[in-house]
Amino acid sequence: MDDFLQKLRQKVKIGVVGGSDLEKVQEQLGNDVVEKYDYVFPENGLVAYKDGKLLGKQNTQGHLGEVLLQDLINYCLSYIAKIKLLKKRGTFIEFRNGMLNVSPIGRSCSQEERIEFYELDKKENIRQKFVADLRREFAGKGLTFSIGIVCSNGFQALPAVWQGLVGA
């Protein structure tokens, strides 16, 4: 595939778009990915490279501001502390360039624990209730919340203006 894309690149511009950060994209496509392609857009375009050089970068912190970001994080941690689950693990909030990933059970849970949480969530709507509460609490503050699939065991919080950009 790489050979094909490099041959094609001699005729047209080639870009790579990925949802992961640059390190993960490099892990998947090689450390020289920003040099091998005309455009590279990690984190669904919130980071942009052209001809091997960084064009621009946006992040949640810069867009929302530290006060709102801390209010959101503190609210989520407080909410998670009050939820009774069969198990809780670590990394309840993962700070990413383009979003916060919030996981009531914790992102460091095992695959078996993810499935267990998913089954409980289907019955008790843990994430739906959490997101509904956040939508009420942070209404009008430029945030949107999106519930992930089974493997995510959580949901994303991100600036509303990025909704279609980062997959919410």
Quick tags:
2 domains, Hypothetical Protein, Haloacid Dehalogenase-like Hydrolase, Chain: A, domain 2, 168 residues, Rossmann fold, 40% helix, four-stranded mixed beta sheet, globular, alpha+beta, single chain
Give the class from helix and strand content and strand pairing: alpha+beta
Distance between the termini: 30 Å
- Are there runs of 5+ residues with pLDDT below 50, and where? none
CATH-defined architecture of the largest domain? 2-Layer Sandwich
Organism: Phyllostomus discolor
InterPro entries: HAD-like_sf, PMM, PMM_cap
Family: Belongs to the eukaryotic PMM family.
Binding site for alpha-D-mannose 1-phosphate: 96, 107, 114, 152
Please tell me about this protein's structure.
Helix content is 40%, strand content 18%. It is of the alpha+beta class and 168 residues long. It has a four-stranded mixed β-sheet. Strands 5-6-8-7 form a four-stranded antiparallel β-sheet. It is globular. The protein starts with a helix and ends in a 9-residue tail after the last strand. The mean pLDDT is 90.
Give a brief rundown of this model.
With 168 residues, this protein is α+β, with helices and mostly antiparallel strands. It has helices at 2-9, 22-29, 33-36, 60-64, 66-82, 111-124, 126-137; strands spanning 15-17, 39-41, 47-50, 53-57, 93-95, 100-102, 143-147, 155-159.
